[in-house]
Amino acid sequence: MALFFFEYQMISRESLLEAMTEYFEGKSIFLVDLKVVPGNKITVYVDGDAGASVSDCQELHRFLESSFDREQEDYDLTVSTPGIDQPLKVRRQYVRNIGRNVKVVRTDGAAFSGKLIKADSDTFMLITRSKEAVEGRKNKIWVEREVEFSYPDAAQTIVEISFK
């Protein structure tokens, strides 16, 4: 009995990024994450300045399929948006979520919850609210503070979902 093995080349992350850079140019959707694992299992996560639709994902999927020859490089391709429970990964996601409540865990483990009010190229800012004791007052009062983070200092930022 003869066994046949077909050797497929693995699509490189760099070639995918190169193709997608061309695709995303001038579009309101953008790359959030790209995963390529052995066996050419490719997962692309996209978002948009106003959200990303199913048709946005389908269009990118078709573009990538037309860019790579399955005869030379067999692959399993998934294009999706990150789930609502997934952390923010790129600055444009922070900009898109200004005005929403988020939870930030810094690299040192400290956690903060508050409203995202600013996101620029280097930092983002929350307004946090906590009850604090004030000298001369019997009861604690609500105090709001602006807390600024650099992107590398945030180990994880997740949008808090409210059903109110």
Question: How many helices does DSSP assign?
Answer: 3
Largest sheet: 5 strands, antiparallel
Bin the helical content.
Answer: 10-25%
CATH architectural arrangement of the largest domain: Roll
Instruction: State the strand order across the main sheet.
Output: 7-6-5-4-8
What percentage of the residues does DSSP assign to strands (E)?
35-45%
Which structural category fits the helices and strands? alpha+beta
Q: How is the CATH topology of the largest domain named?
A: SH3 type barrels
Uncertain parts: none
Distance between the termini: 65 Å
Number of beta-strand segments = 8
Tell me, what is the CATH class of the largest domain?
Mainly Beta
Shape: elongated
Spell the H/E element sequence: HEEHEHEEEEE
Number of domains: 2
What is the CA-atom radius of gyration, in angstroms? Answer: 22 Å
Provide a brief overview of the structure.
By secondary structure, the chain is of the alpha+beta class. It has three helices and eight strands, in the order αββαβαβββββ. The chain folds into two domains: 13-80, 2-Layer Sandwich (GMP Synthetase, Chain A, domain 3), CATH 3.30.300; 91-159, Roll (SH3 type barrels).
